[in-house]
């Protein structure tokens, strides 16, 4: 398995339209997210990256939504995803639509998002599936210079492992197919072969306490005060001697 951090310079597309079938990817992703965006609540939401900024989130109950990125026309705050200019535990939800795909250090991005999220805050991650037909086509010579193949593709299990280390509870995850001649996505592959779907979605929630208590913490919680051996007997013997 390749390390998450890379020295390779990655240039993210400024818009979904900068990649083949980008409009279809954006619309399909927006449609899949709608049921879960409606469940979010709070005061502040960050949409990190240019691709996140183009996702329609108007049905989300969080009214104050801020687009954050290094450069772009739709952004309100110019900043790197690894250095967000927000206080710790001040954001209710973060959307990372293919943000990790063009990040040199995705671990650092996730830790920074975790820092600004409140307890029980929401993190929504999407990306391309490396085991899909789209992911396998990266092996074609010369195609890696173009988006979306120029970005990195992380498997869903790898994303789940990273979130587990940060103590997030996965509320929803899916993989689905999008083909250019069908705007709603490939129903056959999505229904019967979801593992081959080209798009990954993971919706997770930040948890303050460990989801699974460790053995050490279990033993500490069950620890009881042990009675001192022979303490009562020695106390009575001393009193009897004083009385005589």
Overview of the molecule:
With 244 residues, the protein is an alpha/beta fold. Helix content is 30%, strand content 23%. It is built from eight helices and eight strands; from the N terminus they run H-E-H-E-E-E-H-E-H-H-E-E-H-E-H-H. It has helices at 22-37, 50-53, 106-116, 133-136, 156-165, 187-192, 215-222, 231-243, and strands at residues 44-48, 64-69, 77-78, 91-97, 117-128, 168-179, 182-186, 199-206. It has an eight-stranded mixed beta sheet with strand order 3-2-1-4-5-8-6-7.
Per CATH, the class reads Alpha Beta
Encode the helix/strand succession as letters: HEHEEEHEHHEEHEHH
Mean pLDDT: 82
What does the main sheet amount to?
8 strands, mixed
Q: Examine the coordinates and then state which fold CATH places here, giving the name of the CATH topology.
A: Rossmann fold
Rg calculated over all Cα atoms: 25 Å
Tally of helical runs:
8
Q: Which regions are unreliable across 5 or more consecutive residues at pLDDT < 50?
A: 181-186
Strand order of the largest sheet: 3-2-1-4-5-8-6-7
Let me know the CATH homologous superfamily.
Vaccinia Virus protein VP39
Question: Architecture in CATH?
Answer: 3-Layer(aba) Sandwich
End-to-end distance, in Å?
81 Å
Question: What percent of the residues sit in helical stretches (DSSP H or I)?
Answer: 25-40%
* Number of strand segments: 8
